[in-house]
Task: structure prediction
Amino acid sequence: MDIPFRPPIHVAVNAHLLSGDRSYRSAGVHQYIAHLLTHLPDAGCQVTALVGPDAALLDRVQRVVRSRWPTRWAVVRVMWEQVAQPRVLRRLGAELVHAPVFVGPLVSPCPLVVTVHDLSFIRFPRLFRPHNRLYLTALTRASVHKARRVIAVSAHAAAETARLLDVDPAKISVVHHGVDPDFTPLPPDEIAAFRARHRLPERYILSLGTLEPRKNLLRLVEAFHRLRAPDLELVLAGGRGWYYQELFARVKELGIEDRVLFPGYVPRDELVLWYNAATVFALPSLYEGFGMPILEAQACGVPVLTSDCAALPEAAGDGALLVDPWSVEEIAAGLERLLGDAALGEQLREKGLIHASAHTWRKTAVETVKVYRQAVFGGGVTARSANCPSRS
Result:
């Protein structure tokens, strides 16, 4: 039987959160959008990236529509999403719009797909600035109900979306993040040269993520202090987000300023070196929708310690030591085990490499296109939805 030909779907992706800044703005959601735009064309999409006036661009993006609105500012971006974006979509004749970060246009000329990364702003409201929390709570809820399909980046995020936002689970698809092939074990001489260049010790614990309360860095610092290992340092890499002042104050109170390094936002091309040079990678977050740095660390062959809650066990697979993130004692004991038990470290290293290798951005793009097709065609049928514009 002949397989019917299906031309690529024309998808508009709201990429206004792409950023070239050396700050937290270039972290998780930026990477998610960038990798989608890179791999979606090969997965069977005609892609138009909708970007702001100063957004970083990618070589492989098929088509770019740049707005003159200064959407770097959050209030302006919200207005653009709801007021200008529908007009842009109508002019493009897009068959689908993908809102890759929580919020889509509530009035749209074509079907909407929304990605939900986590619902920390609902689960831990006190850890967010009030205006961010209110915006995300109200418009995420409205967007997922408006959307034809919802992408959740983990099974945990899918369950949270269904329960907390009252979304039909059948409407939600789980699509995990991938890991860039650049993240790989490096030769010892290259790692040694990097350590020397940054004056790093032979042993350090690395944690990576935006400096904000949800990352649980206060308890990680307390646990590190309890290790009493003078040859060991703690590297807290990541851009400054919000409510981080207490973290710096606590490091000073404990008298460990000379052993806790804050390198700030780490450029993508250096990140693989920071992972490779680390003795242990620690991500004891209180809540994550997935945990992309876990995969990156595993792909570099670094033993991982992470939390036993939210989506972190799902992200880590069997390639990490899990601890209770609310317990300083358990975090400290876990770090001590990884630092002192070479056999355990090697076991987690091997399992982590296998686990990370199963997650690629190409696979993420292919699974995402399947969701697009469900949104446009329905449950596998070939007829287009009446709400979709025809091809020009």
